[in-house]
Design brief:
The complex is a heterodimer of chains A (about 240) and B (about 220). Chain A has six helices and no strands. Chain A is globular, with a radius of gyration of 20 Å. Helices cover about 70% and strands about 0% of the residues of chain A. Chain B has helices at about 5-20, 25-45, 50-70, 70-80, 80-90, 90-120, 130-155, 160-170, 170-185, 195-220. Classes of the chains: A mainly alpha (about 240), B mainly alpha (about 220). The interface of A and B includes residues 128 and 177 of A.
C-alpha cells in the first residue's frame, strides 16, 4: 500500500529528550530512595514505590491509547507505518504493564499482606491488570498467525480496537464493583491527603514525565528499527 | 435486497446447512454434556457452595462457546463461498445473519448446559427469573464477541487453538458479572441486589455488539 513520511525523529530532538530523561530519572532514583518522605501508618517506607509503580500505569495507559489511535489510523489509511506504530506501542504497553504488576506485587506484599506473607491475593485491580497483559499477549499471537502483511495489519488492528472496547469493563467497571484494597475504589480515593504528601509531589511529577519520556525514546527507536527492517525486506539490495 | 431480508437470508442459509449435517450442533451439545459429566465426577457427590456451582456453570459455557462457535466463518472459507457472500450482500447483513445464528447456538448451549447442570447437581434456584435474564444477557454478549473473533480467526493461516486464546481474556468481565449474578440467583436475592451485575452485562453486550458492527467491515472486505 501507500508509503508515508519516514519515522525518523530529528537527531537534535532525540538527543535533547535523551539527556533530559537521563537526568530526570537519575534524580528520581536518587531522591526516591534517599529523600525524606512523611511517615504514614501502614505505608511507611513503601510509599517510595509511588514514584515507580504509578508512572508505570500512566505509561501503560498512554501506550494503550497510542496503540489504539494508530490502529484506527491504519484502518483508515492502510499506511504500513501506522501498523508498525500500533504494534510497537502495544509491545511497550506489555513491558510497562509487566513492570507495573511487579512493582505493584512488591508494594502489596509489604502493605496489604504484610502479616500473611502472600504475594498475590486476587485483588480485583491486580487480576484485571493481568488479564490486560493476556489480551496483549493474544494480540501478538494473532499477528504471528497471519502470513500476508496487509491482512495481518488489518486483522490485528481490529482485534486491538475490539479489545480496547472491553478494557473499560476490565479496568474501571468490574474493579469498582468488587471489594478492593487498591486506592481509586469506593471509599479509598486515589491521591488523597493521606496518600500523597505535598513534598512527594516534587519527585512524583518528574518521575511521571521521566517514564513517559523513556517510553517515547524506546517507542521512537523501536518504530524506526522496525521501519528499516520493513524497508529492507521490500528492497534487499538497499 | 433490503437489509433485513439480506440478514435473514444469511441466517436461513446457515440454519439450513447446519440442519443438513447437524455437525456444529451435535458436537457442541456433546461437548457440553461431556464437560458437565467430567465436572460432576471431578467434584464428587458432596454438595458445593453456590460460588463454586455458578463458577463451574459459566466455565463450561465459555469453553463450549469458544470451541464450538469458531466454525461459522471458517466453513465459508473452506467451501469457497466467501466471494459469493461478498458479491450478494453487504458486510453488515452477513454479520447480522451470522450473529443471529450464533445467538441461537449459544441459546441452545445455555439451555443444554444449565438444565442438566441444575438437575444433576440438585440445585434449587430461588430466583429463576433472575437466573434466566442473567443467562440471556450473557448469551447475547457471548454471541457478539464470538462472532467477530470467529471472523478474525477465519483470516488466519494457522488457526489451532487461536479462538480461545483471543476470546477468553476478553470475556473476563462477562464471567465475573455472570458468576456473581448467578450466585445471587441461586441464593434467591431480590433483583435490586444484582443490579450492578445486570447493568454490566447489558453494557458488555451493547459495547461488544456495537464495536463488532463497526469493525466487521474491515475484516470482511479486502
Amino acid at each position: 500500500m501507500s508509503t508515508s513520511s519516514s519515522p525518523v525523529v530529528p537527531p537534535r530532538v532525540y538527543r535533547l529528550v535523551q539527556g533530559a530523561v537521563f537526568l530526570v530519572l537519575t534524580g528520581v532514583i536518587v531522591a526516591g530512595f534517599l529523600g525524606s518522605i512523611p511517615q504514614l501508618d501502614i505505608l511507611e517506607q513503601s510509599a517510595r514505590n509511588l514514584y515507580f509503580h504509578v508512572p508505570m500505569w500512566f505509561t501503560l495507559m498512554g501506550a494503550t491509547i497510542l496503540s489504539a489511535y494508530h490502529s484506527v489510523r491504519y484502518l483508515q489509511t492502510g499506511d504500513r507505518l501506522r501498523d508498525i506504530r500500533a504494534r510497537e506501542a502495544a509491545w511497550l504497553a506489555l513491558i510497562f504493564g509487566l513492570l507495573g504488576i511487579v512493582t505493584g506485587m512488591v508494594w502489596a506484599r509489604f502493605t496489604w499482606y504484610v502479616g500473611t506473607g502472600k504475594w498475590w491475593n486476587f485483588d480485583p485491580k491486580q487480576s484485571m491488570a493481568a488479564v490486560l497483559l493476556l489480551i496483549y499477549g493474544a494480540y501478538f499471537v494473532l499477528r504471528d498467525s497471519i502470513e500476508d502483511r496487509d491482512t495481518r495489519g488489518r486483522i490485528a488492528a481490529v482485534y486491538n480496537l475490539f479489545a480496547v472496547v472491553t478494557m473499560p469493563f476490565l479496568l474501571y467497571i468490574i474493579p469498582r464493583q468488587l471489594p478492593s484494597l487498591h486506592p481509586g475504589g469506593e471509599g479509598s480515593p486515589a491521591f488523597s491527603q493521606t496518600d500523597l504528601a505535598p513534598a512527594m509531589r516534587w519527585v512524583f511529577y518528574p518521575s511521571v514525565l521521566g517514564f513517559l519520556g523513556l517510553f517515547w525514546l524506546l517507542y521512537t527507536q523501536r518504530v524506526r528499527l522496525a521501519w528499516l527492517r520493513d524497508q529492507l525486506r521490500d528492497e534487499p539490495d538497499l | 435486497m433490503n437489509w433485513l431480508a439480506g440478514a435473514w437470508a444469511v441466517f436461513r442459509k446457515d440454519l439450513r446447512i447446519e440442519l443438513r449435517t447437524r455437525y456444529a450442533l451435535n458436537s457442541l451439545l456433546l461437548f457440553v454434556l461431556g464437560a458437565l459429566l467430567l465436572v460432576l465426577f471431578a467434584v464428587g457427590p458432596r454438595p458445593l457452595s453456590a460460588r463454586v456451582q455458578s463458577a463451574l456453570l459459566w466455565i463450561v459455557m465459555l469453553f463450549a462457546a469458544s470451541i464450538g462457535l469458531g466454525r461459522s466463518f471458517v466453513a465459508e472459507q473452506e467451501r469457497g463461498t466467501v466471494l459469493l457472500l461478498q458479491l450478494h450482500t453487504r458486510p453488515s447483513m452477513v454479520f447480522a445473519g451470522k450473529w443471529l445464528f450464533n445467538l441461537v447456538l449459544v441459546g441452545l448451549l445455555t439451555i443444554v448446559a444449565a438444565g442438566p447442570f441444575l438437575f444433576l447437581l440438585d440445585i434449587s434456584i430461588r430466583a429463576p427469573g433472575l437466573l434466566a435474564s442473567v443467562l440471556a444477557l450473557g448469551a447475547v454478549g457471548l454471541a457478539s464477541a464470538t462472532t467477530l473473533l470467529a471472523a478474525l480467526v477465519a483470516r488466519a493461516a494457522r488457526q489451532g487453538p487461536l479462538l480461545p486464546v483471543l476470546l477468553l481474556p476478553l470475556l473476563v468481565p462477562l464471567l465475573v458479572s455472570g458468576t456473581s449474578a448467578t450466585r445471587k440467583a441461586i441464593a434467591g436475592l431480590p433483583w435490586v441486589q444484582a443490579q450492578d451485575e445486570l447493568l454490566t452485562l447489558v453494557g458488555f453486550a451493547g459495547a461488544t455488539l456495537s464495536a463488532s458492527i463497526v469493525l466487521f467491515d474491515f475484516v470482511w472486505t479486502d
